[in-house]
């Protein structure tokens, strides 16, 4: 991953509604959620959510697919995995013992 891609992803997540939206979509993997349902759950106007989803899509953090009249959005877990690995690639100067607590916290979630 290049720095610019990581910066774009982190910038997209550096806003409360977008962060909430991304986390919501992660919880609903792999099915995803329709845009209207996301707006309802987050209590955000549809046009505002649309702008947020556009920013998340441009940062490759979410993807939408049309199903009839709805657009179903899903979190792009590969992208967040790449961002996380980019941030932690040189974790603790290569000393695995120093990174172990961080990795242990991540392991139970999946």
Automatic annotation (TrEMBL):
InterPro entries noted in UniProt: ArsR-like_HTH (IPR011991), HTH_ArsR_DNA-bd_dom (IPR001845), Metal_resp_trans_reg (IPR051011), WH-like_DNA-bd_sf (IPR036388), WH_DNA-bd_sf (IPR036390)
The keyword Transcription regulation is annotated on this UniProt entry: yes
Name of one Pfam family that matches: HTH_20
Record key words, sorted: DNA-binding, Transcription, Transcription regulation
Domain HTH arsR-type, first and last residues per copy: 1-95
GO terms for MF: DNA binding; DNA-binding transcription factor activity
Signal sequence annotation: none
Protein name: Helix-turn-helix transcriptional regulator
Organism, as annotated: Rubellimicrobium rubrum
């Amino acid at each position: 991953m290049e720095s610019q891609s990581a910066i774009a992803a982190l910038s997209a997540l550096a806003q409360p509604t977008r962060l909430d939206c991304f986390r919501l979509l992660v919880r609903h993997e792999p099915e995803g959620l329709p845009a209207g349902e996301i707006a309802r759950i987050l209590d955000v106007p549809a046009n505002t959510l649309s702008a947020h989803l556009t920013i998340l899509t441009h940062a490759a953090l979410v993807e939408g697919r049309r199903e009839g009249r709805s657009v179903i959005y899903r979190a792009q877990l590969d992208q967040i995995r790449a961002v996380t690995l980019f941030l932690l690639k040189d974790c603790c100067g290569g000393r695995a013992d120093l990174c172990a607590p961080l990795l242990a916290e991540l392991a139970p979630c999946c």
